[in-house]
Design a protein that fits this description.
Structural class: alpha+beta
Largest sheet: 7 strands, antiparallel
Oligomer: single chain
Order of helices and strands: EHEHEEEHHEEH
Shape: globular
Number of helices: 5
Distance between the termini: 32 Å
Radius of gyration: 17 Å
Number of strands: 7
Strand content: 15-25%
């Protein structure tokens, strides 16, 4: 049985600079929001805050990646990812036993697979994680698709127009520039 799962993607070295630990390129990944459940929103700062805001959790290094891509995943690879995540949940987060850790890992992998379900392999995903007014975590995912023909005049696209905003702008990576540099 084969399916799709998220795989970490590194277009430059920025992940190594902004996250406490950067995931290596090509690791299986999950969103990983569970890693922040015990953190009070006001307690997040620095590299941990950056991991909270935009990190996917790699399942080999348990480091963070800004981008992931949808990739084909065989049954044996999925089983290995499940075992690694379950062991991590047990060791790092104190799951009471292997069954509980495996159940939590299965739920997280299932969620990651649901993000891939309607996306072709190679689709790039980014996320933005935040807290709502009640302190609950919220995750928003964006998909990026490769163009068949690269666009050369990014200044002509209205999405890249410069606009002045009086309120404080949210930190967001320039994904178009990162994809351009990858080619």
């Amino acid at each position: 049985m084969s399916g799709k799962l998220l795989r970490t993607l590194r277009l430059d070295e920025s992940d190594a600079l902004v996250f406490p630990v950067a995931a290596a390129p090509g690791e299986w990944a999950v969103p990983g929001g569970f890693a922040f459940w015990d953190d009070a929103p006001a307690s997040l700062s620095g590299k941990r805050q950056q991991a909270f805001r935009s990190g996917f959790l790699g399942l080999s290094s348990f480091g963070w990646s800004t981008l992931v891509e949808v990739a084909e995943c065989g049954a044996a690879e999925r089983a290995a990812a499940l075992r690694a995540l379950a062991a991590h949940i047990r060791e790092a987060y104190g799951a009471p036993d292997d069954a509980a850790a495996t159940g939590a890992a299965e739920e997280e992998l299932g969620f990651a697979e649901s993000l891939c379900r309607d996306q072709p392999a190679g689709t790039v995903l980014a996320l933005h994680r935040s807290h709502d007014k009640g302190g609950e975590q919220r995750e928003a995912f964006r998909t990026l698709h490769r163009r068949e023909v690269p666009h050369r005049d990014f200044g002509a696209l209205p999405v890249f127009a410069i606009a002045e905003v009086e309120e404080e702008a949210e930190e967001r990576p320039d994904l178009a520039a990162l994809l351009k540099d990858r080619k």
